[in-house]
Design a protein that fits this description.
FGGY_Carb_Kinase, Nucleotidyltransferase, domain 5, transferase, 7-stranded mixed β-sheet, kinase, 5-stranded mixed β-sheet, ATPase_NBD, about 550 residues, 22 strands, FGGY_C
């Protein structure tokens, strides 16, 4: 009821989640029952600057402030009260990457995002020495590559963190990460003394590698540079006066709210979909696309296609992360939208996507001799350091819209499927996958194609409609609970997601066979993609 919402807001019985995604920054305010009371958002885009993908710090705070202002405005409009107090606060952001800070918390180099694949030498050396797959985008890979390249900023380096960790640090003064986000910084030992933490043996090995590569007179302590690790349910500092003004320059929002550990978007996506127990998984589709599969036990071998990370509670997860997701689909939709406008029949973006996605359902199940590669950037799973969006087809087969769009959607899931096949080869089994992200807004379409790709039932539902920002708010609420030792899994199942509306699609056997045929051609055609990169480089 409206009066209950007003009382929760005025008494500070709310939780605010803020997530910095790849194209949107969003804030969501929830009440005691985790229902959404208000939301706000802002768009932003990464930039390729001096050969590296980045976002500016000014854009970070402009987007965060716009999103929080949107929440505050909606609170006034819907509930008739100002947003002055918060019961809890959680920050989430794109995992991985590299933010290098000096002793005054100033950035030493522009933020290096997960999308960068310039860490090849570091990845090879670290993965071999640690007997552990260290992906290109992990923070330790960026640090070691900077050492190998002799970068000037290392002499002033005092701390490294992720985007969520950076925002949290500015809000609280705490150098900390949730274990899920920390597991994209450095390998985690779930059984470490005192709870999940950085793997001590691998930390010592990496320190030796750094010492060997650093020039005389320069020393770096990796243990001191890394944020401390915290798990879901812990409190990780409070909102300072400076932090409150960063969120709300008007001064209305008051300091003091407790914060949960900052998490990566993969972790808050797991929370938002309830996928934190073994044999559950979720797929998030945006600028990148990735699957998170909660494991029942360790994998037998090291696989370069798989990240070994954790849930926000510290349980082991296999992550299949693909650098390229829906961006090329967006580009084609814009092109078709321009065509419609040129014909004098302009359509909004939602209508264009609806028409194109629906058309794909009538396309040839095997892609009809068409191939598409959605590589705007490098794709480590298929061994490409750079990408070129590419479409080709076999002569003698028709070029029709339905099959063209099915091919584009298949392309978005193809690299994910390669990684999922590695997991299947390890004997990992899933009871089902939950899918979320803009690709699944057209009911039943991308969901059906994903089910064909992974050969597993795929669910979508209203529980993830607000995405990772809502997941961050739920983690904030979880950290403020008192008087119980309920696990995150039980908290989500019993207090957050009970009664949620979920729609599940079973894989269609014809679609599964068609996707498998498409994937064989896709893998066979990868040399064409590599040739396109080489031919257009420079």
């Amino acid at each position: 009821m409206a009066s209950d919402a007003r009382e929760a807001i005025t008494r500070g019985r709310t939780a605010l989640g803020v997530e910095l995604g790849s194209t949107r920054i969003k804030a969501v305010l929830v009440g005691p029952d985790h229902e959404v009371l208000a939301s706000g958002g802002s768009s932003w885009e990464n930039q390729l600057v001096d050969g590296r993908w980045t976002y500016s710090v000014d854009d970070v705070w402009a987007g965060v402030q716009a999103s929080v202002r949107g929440v505050a405005d909606e609170v006034r409009e819907r509930h008739g009260v100002p947003l002055e107090q918060l019961g809890g606060l959680g920050v989430s952001a794109m995992m991985h990457g590299y933010l290098a800070l000096d002793a005054d918390d100033e950035l030493l180099v522009p933020f290096r995002t997960w999308r960068n694949t310039s860490t090849g030498e570091a990845v090879e050396r670290l993965s071999g020495a640690l007997a552990f797959n260290v992906p290109h985008r992990w923070s330790v890979a960026h640090l070691y590559q900077a050492v190998l390249d002799g970068e000037e900023h290392l002499g002033r380096l005092a701390a490294i963190t992720t985007l969520a960790g950076y925002v949290h640090r500015r809000l609280t003064g705490e150098h900390v990460l949730g274990v899920g986000d920390a597991s994209g910084v450095f390998p985690i030992d779930p059984a470490a003394t005192g709870g999940p933490g950085y793997d001590a043996e691998r930390l010592a090995t990496t320190q030796r590698l750094l010492d060997e590569a650093l020039p005389d007179g320069l020393a770096l302590s990796l243990a001191d540079l890394l944020p401390r690790v915290a798990v879901a349910g812990e409190r990780a500092g409070g909102l300072t006066a400076e932090g409150a003004r960063l969120l709300d320059p008007s001064g209305t929002l008051q300091p003091g709210a407790p914060l949960c550990p900052p998490e990566g978007d993969a972790g808050t996506g797991m929370v938002a979909t309830g996928s934190v127990a073994p044999r559950t998984g979720n797929v998030s589709a945006g600028t990148s696309i990735f699957a998170m599969v909660v494991l029942e036990g360790p994998l037998a071998r090291v696989h370069r296609e798989l990240d070994l990370v954790t849930t926000p509670a510290g349980d082991p997860v296999a992550m299949v992360h693909c650098n390229n997701g829906a961006s090329e689909l967006d580009a084609w939709a814009r092109l078709f939208g321009e065509f419609a406008a040129a014909l004098g029949a302009p359509c909004d973006d939602a209508a264009v996507f609806e028409a194109l996605f629906r058309a794909s359902l009538d396309g040839a199940a095997d892609g009809g001799g068409m191939l598409a590669y959605n590589y705007l950037s490098g794709e480590p799973i298929t061994g490409l350091e750079e990408g070129r969006p590419l479409f080709l087809r076999t002569p003698g087969r028709p070029l029709d819209l339905a099959t063209f769009m099915r091919t584009q959607l298949y392309s978005a899931f193809a690299t994910l499927k390669i990684g999922m096949d590695v997991l299947a080869g390890e004997g990992v089994r899933l009871d089902g996958m939950f899918a979320h992200g803009g690709m699944f807004a057209t009911r039943g379409v991308a969901q059906r194609h994903l089910a064909a790709a992974v050969g597993t039932p795929v669910s979508v539902g209203d529980i993830a409609s607000e995405g990772g920002a809502w997941g961050a708010a739920v983690l904030a609420a979880f950290a403020t609970r008192r008087g119980d030792d309920q696990s995150l899994t039980d908290y989500l199942a019993e207090r957050v997601l009970a009664g949620a509306q979920i729609d599940t699609v079973q894989p269609d056997p014809d679609d599964v066979a068609g996707f498998d045929a498409f994937l064989r051609r896709y893998v066979a055609g990868l040399p064409v993609e590599r040739a396109a990169v080489e031919a257009t480089r420079g």
